TrEMBL record:
GO molecular function, one term: ATP binding
Pathway: Polyol metabolism; glycerol degradation via glycerol kinase pathway; sn-glycerol 3-phosphate from glycerol: step 1/1
Gene coding for it: glpK
Reactions that this protein is recorded to catalyse: glycerol + ATP = sn-glycerol 3-phosphate + ADP + H(+)
Family: Belongs to the FGGY kinase family.
Boundaries of every Carbohydrate kinase FGGY C-terminal domain copy: 266-455
Main enzyme class: transferase
Sequence positions that bind glycerol: 85-86, 137, 249-250
Protein name per Swiss-Prot or TrEMBL: Glycerol kinase
The protein's Enzyme Commission number: 2.7.1.30
């Protein structure tokens, strides 16, 4: 670490945009660079990104952040990377060119591959090793799909010419030189989302890789979440800057929220919604539809595990109202509309656009708007959209209690939707616990910055993260208990209406 290093940069490669954020020692933001990338929908249920576009955007975002902060690389102690998890790219190690668009975490095209694997041992076939059910959500089957569907890919992979990675691996490989010496690594948190890693050994499981037809030569090396992986490439803006932290986005937010105690939990409200609870240094395997995942691992210290409830659709439901139904021009207007009515008017919207994730894991479910009468107007629907995120969160919290026996006493929250105070109040009401937002809401990027900074000694360790964390706002429950249970009972009834919807003839 150079003597004039005063800041740490985080690269946050998200589902809709790539950002570079520079933080100071207090965890406050100095500057941000951000560029959105195209969402590609080749057919229903398919979601892709152009990995080349994302790498170009990452480079530009880094330039924007440095320019806006009026600093150069010499003032950066380290760079951390956080990323949309499960989104997977396969590329040629010699040319650096992806052989197919990145397949995004929301994509459901691999359901057939998952069904094929589940024919022997069911969807729980690998759970005892990976902590995960067989689901189109995870990275492994996405690689299988590319190898089976891109002409010549299987032969190239077996010849050792192809590499795979989640987006952290793709960004790191390019940042450290790409075809000219780029390091091919991932961290334990991202590896735990592939369906290919053994949770206890933190190594790739050769048998699962064989079952999925993925040559081990394609896979990145697995490292901890906080160590120096490599340095910025000679012809980039971050020459020789240590790249020293990687955390999948939800684990990064958990880290940034200082959830280091067993039983502490956070919920991130973004494109999807992700609730993670720290379960300590032993993995807790779920009987209630949750995922067991690596929370973080700092250098050679013990691995911390987490239970996770993954909700596929949260903020993207508001985007759907805006873009597909043209109900308003700006996402912020959803709150204005919702506030014009007292309640949801009996309407419930279950956003099973790509099936239901935790705790149901029903890939054949599809979205439903139920409870409609002539009384219901667009204000009620706007309210139902906000409420659906809070109800889905309660579904996950119930499952977490059943698995862990740990009662939630408060919920730390972050992500774009926490700006919506109506949603946050309703979340506190429907959970019957206080909901707390930190002063710095960018906890995902901050978590990656902390991991990188700890690795190079810029921060001493978790104690510095705890010291920096400050409460920004708090919402306390004020709803009558009878009303709370009535609303939630109706929600549960609405969820069942989405089951078994997928039509075998059309696949829709």
């Amino acid at each position: 670490m150079s003597n004039d290093a005063q800041y740490v940069m985080a690269i946050d490669q998200g589902t809709t945009s790539s950002r570079a954020i520079i933080f100071d020692h207090s965890g406050d933001i100095l500057s941000v660079g951000q560029l959105e990338h195209e969402q590609i929908f080749p057919q229903p249920g398919w979601v892709e990104h152009d990995a080349g576009e994302i790498w170009a955007n990452v480079r530009e975002a880094v330039g924007q952040a440095l320019a806006r902060a009026q600093i150069n690389r010499h003032q950066l102690a380290a760079v951390g990377i956080t990323n949309q998890r499960e989104t997977t790219v396969v590329w040629d190690r010699h040319t650096g060119e992806p052989i197919h668009h990145a397949i995004v975490w929301q994509d459901t095209r691999t359901q057939e591959i998952c069904d094929r694997l589940a024919a022997d041992g069911g969807v729980e076939r690998y759970r005892s090793r990976t902590g995960l059910p067989l689901s189109s959500y995870f990275a492994g089957p996405k690689v299988t799909w590319i190898l089976e569907n891109v002409p010549g890919a299987r032969e190239r992979a077996e010849a050792g010419d192809l590499l795979m990675g989640t987006m952290d691996t793709w960004v790191l490989w390019n940042m450290t030189g790409g075809v000219d010496g780029g390091v091919h690594l991932t961290d334990v948190t991202n590896a735990s989302r592939t369906l290919l890693m053994d949770l206890r050994t933190l190594a790739w499981d050769p048998q699962i890789c064989t079952d999925l037809g993925i040559p081990l030569s394609m896979l990145p090396q697995i490292r901890s979440s906080a160590e120096v992986y490599g340095k910025g490439r000679p012809n980039g803006l971050l020459v020789d800057t240590p790249i020293a932290g990687i955390l999948g986005d939800q684990q990064a937010a958990t880290f940034g929220q200082a959830c280091f105690e067993k039983g502490s939990a956070k919920n991130t409200y973004g494109t999807g919604c992700f609730l993670l609870m720290n379960t300590g240094t032993e993995p807790v395997f779920s009987d209630n539809g949750l995922l067991t995942t690596v929370g973080y691992k700092i250098g050679d210290r013990p691995t911390h595990y987490a239970l996770e409830g993954s909700i596929a659709v949260a903020g993207s439901l508001v985007q759907w109202l805006r873009d597909n139904l043209r109900m308003f021009d700006s996402s912020a207007e959803v709150e204005t509309l919702a506030l014009e009515v007292q309640d949801n008017g009996g309407a419930y919207l279950v956003p099973a656009f790509s099936g239901l994730f935790a705790p149901y894991w029903r890939p054949e479910a599809r979205g439903a708007l139920v409870g409609l009468t002539r009384f219901v107007n667009r204000n009620h629907i706007a309210r139902a959209v906000l409420e659906s995120t809070a109800y889905q969160t309660r579904d996950v919290v119930r499952a977490m209690f059943a698995d862990s026996g740990v009662e939630l006493t408060s919920l730390k929250v972050d992500g774009g939707m926490v700006a919506n105070r109506t949603l946050m109040q309703f979340q506190a009401d429907i959970l019957d616990v206080p909901v707390v937002r930190p002063k710095v809401a960018e906890t995902t990027a901050l978590g990656a910055a902390y991991a990188a900074g700890i690795a190079v000694g810029y921060w001493a360790g978790e104690e510095d993260v705890v010291a920096n964390w400050q409460e920004g706002e708090r919402w306390t429950p004020s709803m009558d208990a009878t009303e709370r249970e009535r609303l939630y009972r109706c929600w549960q009834k609405a969820v069942t209406r989405t089951f078994d919807w997928l039509d075998e003839d059309t696949g829709r």
